Amino acid sequence: MITLKEALSKSHDELKEILADIEQKAKASELNAYVGFESSGDGVPILIKDNIQVNGWSVTSGSKILQGYVAPYDATVITKLKENGLSCFGRSNMDEFAMGSTTESSFYGITKNPYDTSRVPGGSSGGAAAAVAGGIAIAALGSDTGGSIRQPAAYCGCVGMKPTYGRVSRYGLGAYASSLDQIGPITQNVEDAAILYDIIKGHDERDSTSADMPNEKTIIDDNRKLTIAVIDNYISEADNDIKAGYAKAVKALQDAGHTIIHKNMQNTKYDIATYYILATAEAATNLARFDGIRYGFRAESNNVSELYYNTRSEGFGEEVKRRILLGNFVLSSGYYDAYYLKAQKVRHLIRDEFNAIFDEADLILSPVAPSVAPLIGANHDPLEMYKSDMYTIAINLAGLPALSLPVDKNSDGMPVGLQLIAKAFDEQALFDGASSLEKHINY
Ligand code: GLN
Predict the structure, then answer these.
(1) Ligand 1 interacting residues, C-beta cut-off 6 A
(2) Distance from residue 143's CA to the centre of ligand 1 (Å)
(3) CATH number of the domain residue 128 falls in
(4) Which of 113, 126, 337, 406 is exposed most, by the fewest CB atoms within 10 A?
């Protein structure tokens, strides 16, 4: 597949042909990466996750409860794509309401990993990563609340970037956990990620959490020498495939002239509990609006309370219901202080710990997931699935930018991805370091 950079220099006629080719291949593909094939024009086609509003397109967040709902406006990121001459093409599959790490919970069925179709592509932006890695999309937009861009990119051997919280407008993104969600690019390489990030970033009055910062263009300098921290006690929990990829990446970074420093983090054992308290609390609140009255699906019923009850019972899937229950529990008056408030405090400690490392380092190198992509159906226990988020969620809790890129393949040929993490609003260092690693690693 041609890269985004190459596609941007093509004429409209050439792009029409490319788009037709993508559409044909995507429709014939067994990956189930696409759940819709709408097109907004004949600019460079960007695949859009099914939780980002595109005016006039169906938007379901992978849920039955939004069946039949059509977006009445463009998300700000979509407006920016269109203003820059790009188009939207296709809806990518995702875990229901972006809750999941495997893309197995979508109402539209399971998406498969292009490297091995018996394995998951990761999630929740699994459709986007599978399509980009499987040669049926040039580039895609995903969303990352606790790893949903970076982890599928790592499982599928492509690049996924989560911007600093506030860098990219969330206006028009179906909310999962609003204090953690960010939209970001999933691409074939680091340069394309920077191009797409530059197009979508920037202050937006319509998002009150949007940062009003200078909006300089990213000019990647892959010769810049950086100080990169490795967190020794973090890596010990990953399996051998990941450890091997990690050692290889550290060596490549050293050979490229970067300085490696060693650090430990004390609070990592609280990451998962903190995230799953805060994310479910916010999700329960955000999903309260789906009641059968205003959006999408409405169940048969005889009166209004039955309408709410039946619509939510039939419309939401199992994982989403679990999180609504958990979220309402941690917010309930008897437990609020013990769980929600405590988690907010721990969130600050996690952020402070990252910031202390960034006093000495430009970047942190970390695994994205403790293993390569698991087999479809392997994660029956929700707690096991939550544990697989151990390397990604703290970055969202701290609001930091991070980029996942492929560095190795294991003996089965499955990709191993690692992430670089930067201090808030230092996407420049992130792209410089990632580009240098991409150049010096033999993937
Ligand atoms: N796997 C995490 C969750 O289920 C992260 C999902 C995401 O980033 N949207 O919450």
Answers:
(1) 98-101, 124, 144-148, 176, 279, 389
(2) 9
(3) 3.90.1300.10
(4) 337
